[in-house]
Amino acid sequence: MSDENLKATPALPLKEACVRAAIDVIREDGLEKLSLRDVARRLNVSHQAPYKHFGLKDRLLVEVIRRCLRSFAEALAASGQGQNGPDEAMRALGEAYLTYAVQFPLEYRLMFMTPWPADAKTAGLSQDARAAFDILTHRLSALKPYVSDAERDRDAMFVWSSIHGLASILQSEAMQYLSFSDADAQAAVAHAMDMVDVALAQRRP
Predict the structure, then answer these.
(1) Torsion sign over Cα 66, 69, 72, 76
(2) What's the CA gap between 11 and 60, in Å, rounded?
């Protein structure tokens, strides 16, 4: 029986197992330690087995980032369900963004704070990134009519960069030295979210 069959029955298919093992390597040892050989060792398969699916380490990393982008988009899409109006749905999206960044810091860093492999675009990561962005633009369109897609996208970039800035600061070591209590940090986040709401409200017709 081949290495791949050993991993596929009854557990995960080898390709999926490689992706999960890669995430473990990055989490435990850092991105620079990721290699197909290390993934193979963790899965107790031959060194050649992962190459059948990925060929290069960068292709495995692309697939890891793709999974992160898709889970992130799913979290955003699920936010705001049952809300009474577009304002509440937009606020829920911002909260879901911050929650994801806090609960999955490694995945967040891989998506937004790590250089992507050179072939990320040809591998289709741009479509996965756009899927999350489109959730935001859809919420914005529910708030106000836009003259053009370009205007809507500019507002989306403003919202995205604001929430991303919050998420990045909350994860940074600098927060440890600012003497913010948990309550102060939560109040600062709520204030920043309120300011985003105010900015969007001012741009409505």
Answers:
(1) negative
(2) 20
20-54 pLDDT per residue, tens: 999 999 999 999 999 999 999 999 999 899 988 99
Q: How many residues does the chain have?
A: 205
What is the distance between the alpha carbons of residues 203 and 190, in angstroms, rounded to a whole number? 20
Distance separating alpha carbons of residues 159 and 140, to the nearest angstrom: 10
Q: Which residues contact 126 (CB under 8 A, 6 or more apart)?
A: 120
Whether the ω angle into residue 117 lies within 30 degrees of 0, i.e. cis, is no
57-78 helix and 36-43 helix, angle to the nearest 10 degrees: 70
pLDDT band at 9 (very low <50, low <70, confident <90, very high): very low
- Stated pTM of the model: 0.85
Among the listed residues 71, 116, 95, the one whose alpha carbon sits nearest the alpha carbon of residue 166: 95
If phi over 0 gives left and psi between -120 and 50 gives alpha, with beta otherwise, what is residue 6? Answer: alpha
The DSSP code sequence of 144-184 is S--S-HHHHHHHHHHHHHHHHHHHHHHHSGGGGGTT--HHH
Q: How far apart are CA 40 and CA 112, in angstroms?
A: 27
Amino acid residing at 69: L
167 token code pair: 């998420």
Helix ranges (DSSP H) in 34-121? 36-43, 57-78, 86-103, 105-112
